[in-house]
Amino acid sequence: MKVGWFVRGDIDGFFGLFVDNLLQLMLIAVLCSNVCGMPADLVYGRILPGAALSILFGNAFYTWQARKLAMESGRADVTALPYGINTVSLISFIFLIIAPVYFETKNANLAWQAGLFACLISAVLECIGAFVGDRLRRNTPRAALLSSLAGIAITFISMGFVFQIFAMPAIAVIPALFVVFVYGAQIKLPLGLPGGFVAVAIGVALGWILRLAGYPFFQPLAEPYRFALHLPQSALSEMLAFLTNGQGWKFLSVIFPMALFNLIGSLQNLESAEAAGDSYDTRSSLLVNGFGSIVAACLGNPFPTTIYIGHPGWKAMGARWGYSILNGAVITILCLIGGVTLVLKVVPMEAMIGILLWIGIIMTAQAFQEVPRKHSVAVAFGLIPALAAWALLLIETALRKGGTSLYATAPKFGGDLYIYGIISLSQGFMLSCMIVSAVMVHVVEREFLKAALWTTVAAVLSFFGIIHAYILTPAGVQNNFGFGTAKAFAAAYLAAALILVGLHYYNRGRESETTGIVA
C-alpha cells in the first residue's frame, strides 16, 4: 500500500493537538514566572526550547510508528498517538516540587534545577515501567483503563472549556457548535474543507469584526512580540549539580507517584487507541515516552512529556499521522523564535477550544461504547474520583478568588458539603478511578478473588498515602506520602477484600449446589 504523509483530516487533528500543546506552554510561561519567580530569559530561553525539542522528538517517533502500522496492516485509517506535556504532571511538578524549593530558598535557578532532577528521575522510572507495562495492561480490565480517561475528559477537559465558551458567547459558541454539528453528523464540507479549520476561521472572523465594530470581546495580548532565536542548550551541569547535593531525593515521595501516574495514564491511552482500532506495541511506546522526558530534562525543560489523552477524538476527525509531525514542527518553531504568545495576538483562544470540547466528549463516550454492556456500571463507578478532584478544584478556586482559603473555610462546611470526603477521594484520583472500576468489573463477572486482589492493592496504596492521604495547609491541599498516612482507608479496603473472599466461597458453594458438583 502506498502511504503518503498528509490527509485533509490531519489539518483538524493538528488544530486540536496544537491548541492543547499551546495551552500547556502558556501555563508553563505563566506559572514559572508568576509562581516560581523565574526570569524571562530562563523561561523563554531555556525551558520552552527544551520543551519544544522533547515534543518534536515524541511526535516524530509516533508519526513513524503510525505509518509503520499502516504499511504493515494495509490500512489507511491509522491515527498516530497524540503526544505532549501532561497537565497533571505540570501542575504537580510546579506546586509540589519547584514552587516549594523557590519559596524556601528564593532561588529561581535552584527551583528550576529541582524540576529538572524530578523530570529526569520520573523519566527513568517510566522507562523501567515499560518492561512491566504490557503485563499490567493485559491484566487490567478495559473499563478500568478507560474510566479514568473518561473522568478527566468530561471534567477537566470538557467542562472547563464549556464554561469558557459560554462565558464568551459572541465569539465562542458558534465555532464550538459548528464543530459539534459537523463531527457529530460526520458531514463533509464543500471543497473538502476541514471542520476544525472552518470553525477556527469563523471564530477569528467574529472576534476581529466585533472588535473593529467597537465590541472588544477579543482582547489581543498587549505584550509586544520581539523576534529572537532561542536555541536549546544542555542542562546536564545544572541537573548534576542538584543531583550531587542530595536535596533532590527528598522529593522522591512526589516523583515516584507521578511517574506511576504517567505510566498508568500512558497505558490507558494505549488501551484507548486499541479500542479505537489502532494497536501499538506497549514497550516501545512507553520507552519513547520515557526517553522524551529524558530529552526534556537534558535540554532544560522540567516537565515530563507523555502520550496524550484523546486518540479516538483525533481519529474521528480523520487525522492520521501527518497531524502529529506537523504539530511537533510548528510548536518547535514557535518556541525557538519566542512566538508562543504570537498566535494569541491574532487568534482568540475561544475560537479554538471547541475542538478540545469535542475531544472530551468523544473520550467520555468511548469509555461506555468500547466495553461490554454490563461493564458500563464499572465505567460509571470509575468516574466518581475524577468528579471529586474536579469539584475540589472548583471549590479551591472559588474560595481563593473570594479572598479566603480552603484551610480557613473547611471546618465551616459541616454536613452541607462533606469537604473532607471530597479531598480524600480526589487524592490519587487517577489510580482510584482505575481501581474502583476494576473491582466493579470483577464483581459483575462474579470473579470475587480478582476483585479482592484489586481491593488489597487499594489498601496498600492507601497505607502509604498514594491515594486518599492529604494534609490541609494554608497553602492548600498537599499530598501526604508516608507510612500509615491513610490507615483508616487501608483498613476499610482490607475489610472489603475479606468480604469479597467470603462472597467467593459463598458463591462457589451455591454454584456447586446448582450444578450438582461437590465443592
Task: Describe the protein's architecture and organization.
The structure is a single chain. With 519 residues, the chain is an all-alpha fold. The chain has two domains: 13-162 and 228-371, no CATH class; 372-508, no CATH class. It contains 20 helices and four strands. Strands 1-2 form a two-stranded antiparallel ribbon. The longest helix has 34 residues, at 40-73. It is globular and about 75 Å long. The mean pLDDT is 83.
| End-to-end Cα distance | 57 Å
Please state the average pLDDT score: 83
Please identify the oligomeric state: single chain
- Total DSSP E strands: 4
Strand content: under 5%
The residue ranges in which pLDDT falls below 50 over 5 or more consecutive positions are none
The radius of gyration computed from the alpha-carbon positions, rounded to a whole number of angstroms, is 24 Å
Overall morphology:
globular
- Arrangement of strands in the largest sheet: 1-2
User: What's the structural domain tally?
Assistant: 2
Order of helices and strands: HHEHHHHHHHHEHHHHHHHHHEEH
How many helix segments?
A: 20
Largest sheet: 2 strands, antiparallel
Give the helix proportion (percent range).
over 70%
Question: Helices and strands: which structural class?
Answer: mainly alpha
